[in-house]
Amino acid sequence: MPGPNVHTITVGSTDVCVDGRSVVRLVNGHPDPALVERHLIGPLEDVLAPMGEAAAASSIIRGVARPGVGPRPLYSLKLVAPAELEFAPLIDILYTSGRAGFTHYFLAVTGPGDTRRFLEVDPPVFTMGQPPPPSVKIFVSTDGFRVWSRTQAGLEPTEHGHGFQKTIAPRRGELPLGDRERWDLPALDQALEQLKRADPEVVDAVVSGEHEIPLSVFVDVLNRAAGDGCPADFASRDDTVKKCRFPFLSIEAGAG
């Protein structure tokens, strides 16, 4: 769980706040377009940059290494947002936070029955000259889920040569995007478990999606990727990693 000194970005209905201070106005659920350039939200970066510098002076080291990734410092930030927040502004906020120096996020959704369980999420991992860590990729679209792996050969070929690929159609495509009954989460769970059983050494899952998909769907997907036994705690110890299906979760922009 995030410590008491971790800064918090809160997305409301009209603005984005940092530690309770309003810094960006929202227009139809998105940061004011006049303040955004190539995903970078200017006023938000101005506020976060000095916080990122201070975080770098007091970071912890993530102790679990895996293929392609060594132990590294964590500069953490909390992000609390409504379930209906779309993926496009979420990416803008995460990108801006990364530019300000933060490397690790605690993500929570507000809404009815909110228990404020934070999911740990990283930005994409760049390994500077080394192959990226083997990972499972999950892309969320209005047409359902697409799951694939860089390391497995499965029943369905993929045009990108990544190996295993499975497409999961919505259960009830007529329902709104934010309705959990629209999505076939049990089938997603089954596909992820199939991948994990095929290669238990893979511990990274990378999630992306179309711009209009709401945050609530991504949280469901991230929870499925982490697995039921994954504790809401730092994925920084071997005993924690063993309890999770894919303990290292990343969110990235990009087409599927």
Sequence-ordered SSE layout with sheet pairings:
Elements: E1 8-11, E2 15-18, E3 21-27, E4 30-31, E5 36-37, E6 40-41, H1 42-56, E7 60-62, E8 72-74, E9 76-82, H2 87-99, E10 104-110, E11 119-121, E12 135-141, E13 144-149, E14 165-168, H3 185-198, E15 204-209, H4 215-226, H5 238-243, E16 248-251
Parallel strand pairs: 1-9, 9-10, 12-15, 15-16
Antiparallel strand pairs: 1-2, 2-3, 3-4, 5-6, 7-8, 10-11, 12-13, 13-14
Helix pairs in contact: 1-2, 3-4
Largest sheet: 7 strands, mixed
Protein structure class: alpha/beta
Total count of strands: 16
Q: Could you name the ranges where pLDDT drops below 50 across 5 or more consecutive residues?
A: 152-162
- Count of runs of 4 or more consecutive helical residues: 5
Question: Strand order within the widest sheet?
Answer: 4-3-2-1-9-10-11
Radius of gyration: 18 Å
Shape, per Cα inertia axes: globular
| N- and C-termini, Cα separation | 31 Å
Query: H/E order of the elements?
Result: EEEEEEHEEEHEEEEEHEHHE
How many separate structural domains? 2
Percent range for β-strand residues: 25-35%
Give the overall pLDDT as a whole number. 83
Helix content: 10-25%
Describe the structure.
With 256 residues, the protein is α/β, with parallel strands linked by helices. It has helices at 42-56, 87-99, 185-198, 215-226, 238-243; strands spanning 8-11, 15-18, 21-27, 30-31, 36-37, 40-41, 60-62, 72-74, 76-82, 104-110, 119-121, 135-141, 144-149, 165-168, 204-209, 248-251. The protein has 2 domains: 8-121, no CATH class; 135-251. Helices cover 23% and strands 28% of the residues. The strands form 4 sheets. Strands 4-3-2-1-9-10-11 form a 7-stranded mixed sheet. Strands 14-13-12-15-16 form a 5-stranded mixed sheet, with helices on one face. A two-stranded antiparallel ribbon has the order 5-6. A hairpin with a 3-residue loop joins strand 1 (8-11) and strand 2 (15-18).
